[in-house]
Amino acid sequence: MLRPYPFIMSDFASIRGLGRLTVGEMRAAVKDGARFIVFEYVLSFVIGVRRRPSTIYFVRPGQSFFWLALPYNLLTLVFGWWSFPFGPAFTIGAVRDNLRGGRDVSAQVIDDILTAADRQVKARRPASRRR
Description:
Strand content: 15-25%
Structural class: alpha+beta
Distance between the termini: 41 Å
Shape: elongated
Order of helices and strands: HEEEEHHEH
Oligomer: single chain
Strand order of the largest sheet: 4-1-5
Number of domains: 1
């Protein structure tokens, strides 16, 4: 089951791999097969487990995600096991999801970007032209 990620898109510059694409170029790239993905990592403590999303990555068609996921997999494999009973289960799940390409959050990111663009356009309109 896909669960929504609790990140807030307040700073689009934090999306890694996006560069200086315009909204139109980004939408065209997504139509051609590019994706916005997040990876998971797990941090276990003796009495608790944290399963967290990474920063968002823009992955173009044909680009390998293995090297992007590697730091999160290593972090999870070293620090994810140490809480019983959920540490091992969350660790296995996070590494499995990362090796499958992470979680595709393209729809949510595009929606957030378009909403922010609409807000900027409305803010630039003179008050007499707003309806």
